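Supplementary Methods, section 5.1.

A reviewer requested that the exact input to the structure prediction be made available. We therefore reproduce it here, unchanged from the version used in the analyses.
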Amino acid sequence: MSRTVFCQRLKKDAEGLDFQLYPGELGKKIFDNISKEAWMDWQKKQTMLINENKLNMMEPTARQFLEEQMQAYLFEGKEPEIEGYTPPSK
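The structure derived from this sequence is encoded token-by-token as follows.
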């Protein structure tokens, strides 16, 4: 049984995540307000950011950086800066 959320990234009703994938308050906010589609889009961007910046996910600064990028992407509609990547134009 899928659930529908009003996705703040896509600005439309869409299929919600099956369960909270990120810890804490931010994770709850994502679960309540971000669709599966937008989350999967973010996962691709996150992988590019980790690879391009050679982030070590054991380092708190790397996790903090990614969390800021994630919030900007999901809730403020900002594309992360990824060298050599141009987001598809709508």
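The CA atoms of residues 53 and 65 lie 10 Å apart. These observations are discussed further in the main text.
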